[in-house]
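Lab notebook: predicted structure, single chain.

Context: the supervisor wants predicted structures on file for every construct in the current expression panel, including those that have not yet been purified. This is the next one on the list. No modifications to the sequence; it matches the entry in the shared construct table.
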Amino acid sequence: MERQQTPGGVDRRLRSTAAAFTSLVAFAATSLVAGPAVAAHPQDPCALPRTAAHHSLGLDTWNGDYARPKRALNAVMIFLSFPDSVPRADPAELAADHFPSTTDFYRRASYGKFTLRAHPLHRWLPMPRASTSYGIRRDWNPGRRTDYLRDALGVADPVVDFSRYDVVYFVADPDAPGVDSDATKVVNFEHPMRADGTDIKRVVTVFEHHPPDRNVLAHETGHVFDLADLYHRPADGKGDWDTYVGDWDVMGSQFGLSPDFFGWHKWKLGWIDRRQVRCVSTTGTTLLTLEPIAAAQDVGGEAGTRLAVVRTGKDSVLAMEARGATGNDDRTCTEGVLIYRVRNDTASGGGPVDVIDTHPHTEACDDNSVYPPLADAPLGVGETFTVPGERTRVEVADRTPAGAWTVKITTGSGDMKEAGTG
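Prediction complete. Output recorded below exactly as produced.
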């Protein structure tokens, strides 16, 4: 939504913006921002507590510094041009690169419980400096990034009422010479920007090509909701980035064949509730049926089990969920029961989730998987796998006519084989 402002109002607002930036420290989504605790889940032996790790996957409380996607949220898209380039794309075209596809992704992932409403500005706002002057790149110089954000807010503030929006996207002209598509990310602020009486605690800076990477805005928006990066970044920037989770969550790779959020994420975000989580906390064998995590909510609102959890330590669990070719996972490579470790004390980018490869000697979908060794990670019908070091055995006994998986989980037995499918 646009708003015009008198010149006097513009001057006062820009002075306020400049003052806010004198104390601003902007940093990327891998930096730590402490936030208040808001009760999110009842006491539960399988609900890991939230820790000080950035984007901690603990879910006993919600970090109140982040918008929680359990209701409709409004997002503004602001399009920035530069004096060293004439835009070749129209803002409406760039908006269509991301919406309604991103809204649809979240609608499916949340079982219709969350709507992301996009409000594109539909015109270019000219930045005061050349695109090349900002040094835009993945590992961005903090001072130049602050200059960019200060200028972006300065040109947007007179025409955008930020009090109306929960999410802010600054979209740069993709054809400007200084724009690097690898620099797309969420920037958090130690000291929020302030406009229209509203604290702006983070923004999504979009530098994507036209057309952009698939699901890129679904990934970046996940950070706005306090979700961690699940990829592994090699120290030298070379090698595989997808060794932790492969194709299995959009926070690992926006290119994944099975990009729907892990069930653990959906529990954290409030899209599945405690009735749909089975906490396996006793020694012995537990028999349960898992509905595919990406399948739509049952007709009539029946809540089937979506996630099984075994507590393995103070800061860790094993999670199990069914993955099938439906919803956001309709392009999946393989189907079955996926097993993964979750750690609440591991920060974004450090591997807070590890997918367990139940077929460690094979791989699948070499042509289109982001990481073929994990593409066949799920356990299929008739297969049994003992998780190394965890004294937990998982058997997929059957699949129901409706497409759910019947699973036996055995914990605490001393006579298990240490690892393997068989």
